[in-house]
Amino acid sequence: MTLHLIAAFVVTLALFAVDSAASSPANRHYNAGDDVPLFVNKVGPFRNPSETYEFYELPFCRPDRVIQTKQTLGEVLNGDRLANALYDLKFLEAKSRATLCQKKLTQGDIRRFREVILNDYYFQMYYDDLPLWGFIGKTEEQSWVLEDGNKLKFYLFKHVNFDVLYNGDQVIEINALGDPNDAVDITDDAAELDVDFTYSVSWYETSTVYQNRMARYTRASLLSVHKKIHWFSFVNSAVILLLLMGLLIAFFFRRLRNDLRMSSSGDDEGEDKEVGWKYVHGDVFRHPQNMSLFCAFLATGAQLLTMAFLLFVLAFVGTLYPYNRGALCTSCVMVYALTSVVGGYISASFHSQFEATGWGKTVFLTGILYLGPFFITMSILNTVAVSYGATAGLPFGTIMVVLLICVFLAFPLLILSGIIGYTFRSEFQPPSAPKRHPREIPKLGWYRKTLPQMLLAGLLPSSAVALELHSLYTTFWGYKITTLPAILFVSFVILCLLTAILSIGMTYIQLSVEDHQWWWRNGVARGVASNIHVSLFRILLFQVEYERYFADILLFRLHCLLVLWDFLDTWCSKFLCFLCVCLPDLPCC
Questions:
Q1: Cα dihedral 235, 239, 242, 245 in deg (nearest 10)
Q2: Which residues contact 236 (CB under 8 A, 6 or more apart)?
Q3: Which of 239, 293, 349, 536 has the most CB within a 10 Å radius?
Q4: From CA 231, how far away is CA 216, in angstroms rounded?
Q5: Eight-class DSSP state of 524
Q6: Given this model, what pLDDT does residue 441 score?
C-alpha cells in the first residue's frame, strides 16, 4: 500500500510539473522593442469574483479576429479564457496617450457599461504571465436628483495607465489604473456616443529579481496584522485541544481507578454489579447495519484525507502558488484520481474483515459516494453557468477529459487496489464474540440522545478553526488568496485531532450508558454536527445580496461540496483514531 501511495504521488508531481510548465513560462528575456505577450482574460463583479465572464462579452475595443489561447485543463476548470488584445506593450517602449481604438457606443452598449459599473466590475489581463486588474468605470453620487430619479452619475474610463517594472531584460511587475480624470459621462441614454479609447505605458527599473516577482501577491498575507490574526487562531485552537485532551485523560483515569477498585475488592458479586460498557462487550463488535455503505463512507473519507495532505505537500514544495493559472484545479483532479488506490484498498480490506462477500459493491459505492454528488452538482452549476454565459461553464471537450480521467485512471486504480485489499485481507477476531440477539438499550436522558450530542460535538471543532475558515472561504470564493499553507495545515491537523478526541470521549460515554449502537453515530451524527456549525458560519460570513441568481447557486453548491469533503475526511480521521485507541484488536490498527 505504501508503494502505491509513493508511486501515485511521484506521478502526480510529474504530471503537475508538466502542466505548470506548459501554462507558466519561466525566465523570459527580452530586448528593447520585443513583443511581450499580453492577453485579456475575464471580467466580473468585484463583490463576487467567482462570477466571471469573457473579456469581450463587454463592448470593449477588440481585434478584427479574436484568438483564444491554447489552455490547460486547470485553466479551463479555473474559468480562465485568455485571448489576444489590442494593447501593444513592447519591452522598454514608453507610450503617452496612444490610441487603442475609436469606438461608437450604441445605446445598448451604454446601458451595458452602466450596469457593470454599478456592480463594480473589474477586468483581468496577463502580461508576461503576470496578472493585472483594473476597474471599468466609477460612479459618483450627486447632491441633487437627476430627471430619472437617480442620484448616481456613471463614468466610463477611456484611458488606462500601465506602469511596468523591469530588472535588466526581464519584466518584474505591472499595474493598470483607469484614469478617473479622463472618463466619459454615460449617465444619459444617448442614441450613440463616440469614444476615443487610449492608453499610456511607463517603465521603471527595480532591484527585485525575477525569482521574487510573484512575492507581491503573497505580501498582504505576510503583514504583521495578518500574522497576528493567524497566530491567535493557532493559539486558540491549541488551547482548546490541550484542554480537551486533559479532560479526556482525567475522565479515563477516573474510570480506570473505579474499575481497578472494583476488581481488587474481592467481592464475589462484582460481576453482578458491573454496569455501563462492561455489559455491552457482547454487542460492541456486532457488525454495523448497511456494512457496504459504512465502509464506503470510511474509504472515501480516507481518500479525501489523503488528498488533502498531498495538496498541502504540493503547496509546501512550491508547486501551488498564488495565480499559477489552473494549478489548484489540475492538482485536485489528478490527486483525486491517483488517491483512488487509498479508497479502494481501505473499502475492500475493511469490509472483508467482517464479511467475506460483498466487497465489490463496497468498492463501487466508494467510487460514486463523492463523485456522484460532485458530478450532479457540477452539472447543474455548469448548465446555469452556460445559460448565463459565464466562464464557469465548461466546454464539452473539457467535460469529456475529466470523465476520461475518472473512467480510465481513477476507476481502474480503485478496482485494482480493491482487489489487492481483498487479497491481503486479515480476519477480525473480536476479544468477545457478539451475542446472538442484541441487548436492549435502556431509556436514555434527553442530553444523551443524538441531537444534543451533535450540537456539542460540532461546537468545539468549528470554534477552534473559525478564523481559518474565514481565510479558506474567501480563497474559494475568490476574494483573496490564502498564502500561508503552514498555518492552514496546522489548523487542519488540529481539526482532525479535535474531532478524533471528541469521538473517543463521546463514544465511550455512549457505551457507558449501555448504548451499543455506536458505529454510525460515531461518524454520521458527529460528522454532520461540525458541518452544521460550518454552514451557519458560512451564512453569517457571506450575508451579501447578489444581483444575480447565478452567484447564489454557485456559492451554495460549492459550499455543499466543501461540507461533504469535510464531513467525510473528519469522520475517517476520528473513526480510525477511535478504533486504534479503544479497539486495538482490529487488524487495521
A1: -130
A2: 464, 467
A3: 349
A4: 22
A5: I
A6: 74
